[in-house]
Design goal:
By secondary structure, chain A is of the alpha+beta class. Chain A is 47% helix and 9% strand. The interface between A and B is medium-sized, with 29 and 29 residues.
Amino acid sequence: MCRTEVRIKAMSQFELVIGNKNYSSWSLRPWLVLRHFRIPFTECRIPLYQGDSKAALLEHSPSGRAPVLHDGTTTVWDSLAIIEYLVEKHAEKGIWPVDREARAIARAVSAEMHSGFEALRTHLPMNCRARGRIRALTEEAERDVMRVQEIWTSCRREFGDRGEWLFGDFSAADAMFAPVVIRFSGYGIRCDERGSAYVDFVLGHPALQEWMNHAQGESEIVEELEVGEERE
Amino acid sequence: MCRTEVRIKAMSQFELVIGNKNYSSWSLRPWLVLRHFRIPFTECRIPLYQGDSKAALLEHSPSGRAPVLHDGTTTVWDSLAIIEYLVEKHAEKGIWPVDREARAIARAVSAEMHSGFEALRTHLPMNCRARGRIRALTEEAERDVMRVQEIWTSCRREFGDRGEWLFGDFSAADAMFAPVVIRFSGYGIRCDERGSAYVDFVLGHPALQEWMNHAQGESEIVEELEVGEERE
């Protein structure tokens, strides 16, 4: 179904339709879940913010937005709904934490990210190529940044004993916050010690590095998402 | 834990913290799921938009927002995460559709509602007491209204054979769209035939009527949420 760009990887059960890797924070989330858990999938990239983006996306999903997952004749859209679909299809992978309470909190912080943080998202658009920039924060964005760090700190403190991820092992919650990590890193947002350690750890994930390397190679420039000033 | 208002109903496993029934669309969603599926719960109402609302909510959840679900020592926040928690605790209830594809689409449209429709939410704030008003739509709100109807129509057409709800039987997806039904009804938003039938059907649900009756009895008036003009 992907007519816009050449398919990457061999035939597999799932096809994930994504936007530009440089800008599409929603696309990154299920992509990272698929990659981390080594679930085979075909990737279909549709550059967003171009004249025919909407029409191309509407061929894949009635929402007209990326990401979209195709699984045979089933089409699922929205990052969180795609993740829940993968959770059901791959129950053995532990995409959410295995412990019930940890899983409940992982879903809570992921849903909070999914529906909120408007100021952070608007003021600090994800831009993988924005390295070493500075962006002064609005009051609302500052509040969002504080809340994100509070989430990271409390998850790590209460559930993070077994590893470096929010709930010890990697889970969908880390995927939900990965675009925030890229934003914090790219715009020089200062974190406390735990927050900084988490940012560095996430950035070092091979799958995230793969995504960011691909983003470097993309040619589309969307001016309104090129915010922040170069650091002196 | 609810110190703000007297608890309603007898002791039960779950306590749901909600905002004003008149205004808190997010609170309505898990409340309706609990009520429809006859899952016993204690209700704790914290009027929002008052001076001490935030502090009162922070006693219940680190997000400082309603709704919040307490289950013993476990605290879950965010409407969608609460619903997924109830889905796990009451697998026998069929809170999402039983069929896998229907369930995937139900989660997709619910997640789309959860993270999107900003124009609709801002321009048409939920207000259970706003009966017979008229509200001119902005272009963005008009697009949201169209998309909502498209969702309703496609779900009813593809999965609604067995009943009057989006997926035949009542599911969490209907709860996610219930506040939109109240908005459409209250502000005189015209729907196509199928949409109008769905709006009327949802409004007739005894649990929704119970919620709206309670809302009528609330005394708090939040001026910025009192939009729309009375019909002549």
